[in-house]
Structure formats: C-alpha cells, structure tokens
Amino acid sequence: MQNNQTMTLHEKLQTGMKVIELEKQGKFEEAEKLHKQIPMAPYLVKFYKDHLGLDALLKTGWNFSEAVAEYGPEFLSR
User: Fold this and answer.
1) In whole angstroms, what is the distance from residue 76 CA to residue 67 CA?
2) How far is it, in rounded angstroms, from Cα 8 to Cα 74?
3) Dihedral sign, CA of 14, 69, 59, 45?
C-alpha cells in the first residue's frame, strides 16, 4: 500500500483543491500523484479487488486506508 493514512473530509477537500490547481498549471503527473493520496472509498476498493484482482489493485498506487479500516488489516493480503 502506497499510503496508509486516513484523512478527514476537510483534508480530502483541501487535497482535491490542490489537485485542481496543479491540473490548471499543467502539472498532471504531480496532480495524479497527489490525487492518489486521497483514500479510495472502501466499496470501490472491494469492487476492484473482486473484479480486477488484488495484484492489479495494489499496482494502482491508491490510498486504501479506509478499506483496511473497514474490512480489516488482512483485506489487502487475501
């Protein structure tokens, strides 16, 4: 897991605004990297894991901290 830090709603919104600013500046790679720090919704992580597989999911680099908090620490190792 690239980033295991959970975020408050305020932190997610602040990060999202920074992503938008970076995109406006044409800094798309930096924006994508920052965007992936925002935790992915647990239901989406579960869906992707079930349909794409754990290896493909882990390669995305997204933050799965909320899914781990909801489904347990073994969720990304099964």
Assistant:
1) 9
2) 23
3) negative
Q: How far apart are CA 17 and CA 46, in angstroms?
A: 26
11, two tokens = 């932190």
The CA–CA distances, whole Å, from 18 to 7, 33, 42 equal 15, 11, 23
The tens place of each residue's pLDDT in the chain, 78 residues long, gives 344 688 999 999 999 999 999 999 999 999 999 999 999 999 999 999 999 999 999 999 999 999 999 999 899 987
> Which residues, in sequence order, are CB contacts of 2 under 8 Å at separation 6+?
36, 61, 62, 63
* pTM value > 0.70: yes
β-bridge partners, 39? 63
- Cβ atoms of 71 and 62 within 8 Å: the answer is no
